[in-house]
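To whoever picks this up:

The parser on our side crashed when reading a file containing two proteins. I've narrowed it down to the boundary between the first structure block and the second sequence. Both blocks are reproduced below exactly, byte for byte. First block:
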Amino acid sequence: MPGFAGSSSAGSPRRRSFEALLGFRRGGSAVRRQDRYALVLGLLLFNYVLGMFPADELGDACRLVVFVVTLLLAVRTSHVHRSTARWIAVVMITGTVAVAILLLAGADALGAGVLNAWMSAVLLVTVFVIVRRVLTHEVVTVNTIFGALSAYFLIGFMFAAIYGAIVNLDPTPFFAGGKRASAGVLQYFSFTTLTTLGYGDFTAATQAGRSLAVLEALAGQIFLVTLVARLVSAFRPGAGARDR
């Protein structure tokens, strides 16, 4: 597909052999055989459902574990270089264990704030890994669309985690009228902002919250217009068989 970066067939024999091992075709197509983002999207939908129910720090920690598993799965299916994948796995698992220890130590608000901040970092890395891989697809398949939709969901989760960090680390009420900012409400606020629905039942009261809400709305619209819509318009239903 024009406009998406691909792999050139030129280069040293060693590079061509390495690309062949990873699944590149000789014509320069960058769609590798094992790109499977349906499971990644399924895990995100599962986490979305979990976020609809009331949860404490333990519930948030469980969601963090699911997000880390999602990241590791995204790294695997996105064919990240082995050394980079190993480094990501070590950092993410170490950070998650450190956050769990902080929570077990009884650091209530601080621990919840750090947990949400770390969760947003995990989600940011996952967005980068998926989008970077999707942009190498010259042929847009169902897996490409699933990858883009996964990244879109991840943006909503990421901003919800950022809002959660602010709520726990800043004593100032996050919502106007002092409304309670639970994890479920923050997820609701994040996704209604991302999709620019703007019901108005929850409104950020602080300057930081308002600025982040505007940034999320812009990110959601730009992502839909520049990536998802473009991929859908270039989708070729018969191209999915080439991925097998």
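<<boundary where parser fails>>
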Amino acid sequence: MHSQISYPTPTTAVLTITDAGVLNVLGTPVIQGLIQTLAELAENPQLHCLVLRGSGARAFIAGADIKELASLTAASGRRFISALRDLCNAVRHFPVPVIVRLEGHTLGGGLELAMAGDLRIAADTAVVGMPEVKVGIPSVIHAAMMPAQIGTTRAAWLLLTGENIAATQAQQWGLINECVPADQLDARILEVAAGLAQIGPVVLRQQKRLLRRWERMALDAAIDDSIAEFGAAFDTGEPQHHMQAFLQRKQAAARNR
């Protein structure tokens, strides 16, 4: 299956890429195995959060399998990149937030997969890059998200030069949400996951769906579309529960002053 699943809490799943070499490279068997595992995890109604990570500390994913790429033709190349697109989309449309854990190198298709996640938390020693042009191929599929995420000037630098940048610089550019010391990386990710676990499961999934829809809509249409979603939230009972708990805490604090 090229993956291992663990549950640090009932609401958080950790999906670890396995059997993909020391740098967790993406070959066809790894890609297909991850797609299947993600489809199975998506059916778990208890999840509030998925953490996606590589094995070991050398890389999240150091790119696609060069040995496989070197033997591709135009037709098999389209099949390969279509499968990688499907993997990235499985993460983008996963029903709950996906935290991507970055340590060591995250390159090429690995960075595209990371961008498909919702939150990217990295060790401050990590490195990211899009080196495809250096081996004769363009960066494609979810690299198309990069101009919107970090701006056209910064995207042009990464995509045209193929140069790597430090995770700390990637955070400054808006490509990574947060950098922490490597020995604090897992604790910080679980802390964020614990915060997500405190949010109602229906609204968490609703907000992620809205984020994906807004990517495809003009601003005015997205604003109008969100009105119905706001009303629908009150059918779930979650607003009433959380708002009443907030008011009760506020009243208790006032009494204790």
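After patching the parser it read the second block fine. DSSP finds eleven helices and ten strands in the chain. The first strand starts at residue 3 and ends at 9.
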